[in-house]
Amino acid sequence: FFELVRELLLPQHITITAWSKSLQYFHSHSLRSPPIRSLIYDKISKSNTANFNGIYATLLQATILSTLKSSTESTDWNSTGIPFHRLALIFPALILAPLEKVREDSINSRVHDRLQRFLAGDAEQLYAELQSIKSLTPAEKRARADDASSPPSAAAQSAADNGNIGGCCRLITTDEPIALLYPPQFSKAKGLYPQEGADGTIHFVSKPDTNKDGTALDIPEKNLLRFLRAVKTGKGSGPFCDPTDPLRNLALLTDGSGRNYPYLSTVHSYLQIVASNLVPSEVLEELRTVYLICLHKKWPDDPLALRPIGIGTSPRRITAAVAASCDQHLFAEHLLPHNFGIGVNGGAQFAFHAILSECHRHVFRTKKQLRRGKLPTRVLLSLDLVNMFNRMSRSKCRQVIAAHFAHLLPLFDCLNGSATKVVVTLPDGTTEEIWQVEGFAQGCPLSGIFAALVLGEILRQLGIIGKSILDYLPPSPLRSELQDVLEEYGEETDGLQILGIPVGSPTFMQRFLSKFYAKLQKDTSSVIHGLPNIQKAAQVFSKCILQRLPFQLTADVLSSFDADSFTGPHSWKSDLTDRVDSVTRQVLAHLAKMPALPDYTTHLASLPESVNGMGLFDSRKSAVSSFIVPLSRSIRYATKGMELKHKTVLLTPYLQRIFSNWRKSQQPMFSTFRTFVNSAIPLISIPPSMRAADPVDFLVLHKSLPGLQRQLSISAADATKTALTQYAESFVSVRKVEPLPLPLNHTKPTTPAQHPAPATHLTSTAPRSTPSSPTILCLPCSQDQSSIPDATKILMMMTPLLYSPPDDLSQLDRSFSAPADSDGWRWTDEFTKGMLQKALPSLTRSATASALLSAPRTLSHNRMNNEVFRVSLQRALRLPVHLRRQVCPCGKTIDLFGDHYFECQKFSKLWLHNRVRDALYVVFRTLGHLTGLVSTKDDVLHEAPNLSPAFPSKRPGDFALRLLDHLLTICAVDVTMTGTPPAMDTPKDQELAALATWSSLISTPPERSLSQPRSAPGAALALSSITFFTEPLAGPCATHGTPSRRAKAATSHGRCANAPSRRKDASAAPFAPPTGSGRRNTAPAPTAAPTVTGPRRTGLPSTSPPPWRRRWQRTSAPPSTRTLMRPPPPPPTP
Prior knowledge:
single chain; alpha+beta; four-stranded mixed β-sheet; 14 strands; globular
């Protein structure tokens, strides 16, 4: 394939000799697992990333072409695709292997050098260097991890930065350390892989099925995008140190327009080759290879109890994930009604509801019923199949696939046609191989489905669900063996755990929930104390730990419900919710570095992100919805069937009868459900006809479940806002918060020296990001400044350093002065009646809080350091930004919450103004042409001059838009930093005061504006329109003269835009150009200018209209009218 190399890969000045040698080497040598387990993919520059993607895509193209053109009969290296397939597997590791003891600035130079060497054909030498890298052995990693002074898991932090928050949580909270495979452990791990089938034979595929057309994975490219986006990022690397991120991101890479995917078709064709089993047989061994990691299941009690975790190659994982997502509705149809866990939304909850209802009917009995002789009539039998994946028959699975999923047969043969090589790393760093001849590989997205297909055949042979399993067993020996097993293990009369939820008596449920809370508290402590970056810790706590609650609230409701004390759908109260609320307060106090918190803090933090809150899960207000929505779905499944992508599958009559009597059943689950539904009816939008007839039936059987969930969430947010309003109208109490305990039982030794207490400053390891919101300016002061590092003390000196860093940093200490009574100042007294009320309107409008935890960490500029995030959190939750009284250079005392910084004229707001301006410019430039506001992104101008030829040097707006639908108008946007609105007596008056403070700087009426008030203090957008005319008007304004670049008042306020400034230092000639340098250039005003009757409108001479406005001359009004043409109404807000 010299022609392929010369055409696709080879630079013009390089000969083919080097490539010939490399291709021969990779044709004759199988790939070996490298000694590294991570890459520097997220550390290289944008230019190196672009070069890497381009060469990677070209290599995949060469792989595709060589596969299609290769000869199956020839074994010559120049006529097969073997070397290209192997290079495609190992390419990410060749280029992105970590460097030994180098500086950050040398990473990109080394990566650039590797790319050049690869293009020159030096792949063999790069592979040799990869295999010679010295890495820590597993034993050395364990010793370093056991060191109390070592930092937390680097893998956990890397997973979070790559968007895998769930993986970060599992790594930092796991109680199962990685096992060192010494001979006893290695023998145990090897025993997990049977070397023969259940019948004592080995069944390999003698004639693998292939699809020569390459259409086995018949997915349009537009659907492939959706499936690839669902592939999780930040996952572990495969056997050849090949994570899925490079291949996934290559397919999702867009060009400058954001609409085209230049490499999607290449990745699509490459996955088609794998799915069609067109990979050369010599390479299939490498493609099937799995890297094995074992965890201790019962450490340290049982060192030989291992949990295997396998990681396959990146092409295998992505192809299998796409196939599983594409055909999940077909798998669900085949497995129902015996398996509800694959392809069924809420299938696990349906199984739990069915089991719980049957247990209430046939198993659960009170002591009173037992004394009366009403005994249980059935037994719930729970079977746990140990090592299930590795014990399922491949041949049986292939028969099922050939009969029902024939299009997947080539992919099955590609992945499981012969033995799978499992690579493990021993404690000394050497590798060993285990051959898996039966079962399905760990870590493959299709392995669980393949195992379920085999299990489904067994369940079908047992008969109808709900009958005794003993009736389907022969008299002996299996029946007697099962009876012996039941006698040996005994029976659970109190309850047991099914699908992670307790099923049993209320006492058993409460005992289970107590253990659940203990685990939640322990994991929370591990995350908060184990991750040095507090934003990362907050995201893991919010997105992972708190998300365990909804599934357990059903058990909490069933074990704690009391009809007499139930007051409403958003006021659930139980021991579990009280404990979780306490943990949430502890986390917020730790993140904000506060010894005490006001009562309203958790309410602000629990506002949903859809209403500009942080989105912390509130178990009190979400318990009812977490109970109603899943059970409503289960009732619909039993009544109407399970709606899949292509059809509706009806369940068996037995399952339908379980839920048929939900309207009148006295089982606790259904009676509680009816009570909750009746309490939620006033909060849900129901058609009048249905509300008069049967609103309960409509809500349970006909109301859209996403709409029901959304309306319950909105009503919960309204209840939270009502509670905040009540706090605002009264004096706020501040309660002390106990610090989170250290994770003493964590697998890694944890000491106070390793993880500082909440009051100690934490140093961030994330890249320092600059605040982009007006709510993150005030940096906190500590109660004890003597123990603060110098760098932190500099940051706490506030805005002079942030806006314009002085040459002499020692002068910062003299910027503030503390009163003599500072030591005796009680900061809790500052929580007066109006301090929350005046900020509440802006806090509920600003989207700043919602971005603190929801911004994706895959973008480095979304990663805040600890100081910036802490102040952002304090401003979003209306917490003190400092706990010591300080006096501003202006002579006033700085308030507790830092509002004074936005009002004081001693501090320049230019830095913050420019940050907000640049952020809005990027937003409009990125989204403007997509929403039809402008034709191209170049129509968004950044402080552009020449908007008005009468004043060519002026820059009247921070940025301007050449509107697509308004051919006569440029929309100039000006950003103005506002102060804090004054405190009012009532919340309604406070709302009006906030709107007045904001709208006073808006040049269009507030009801027509396109912006929302930012957090108080915050930024307001001053929108103005500049209309161009073909002829200047007669002269200046008769009253006020020529227009000023400082004019900001609207005609709706009854003042001409040329009126004199109201500033005290306004000169007698208010429209003379100001002296000195400023944000915008200035120029003398012309001798004659058109009349300005609207906000910032000037005339345009008819001599030289801009090219993009010449079309206007055909539709302009006659110049003799000498009236200002109003621009057409603005388009609807996207």
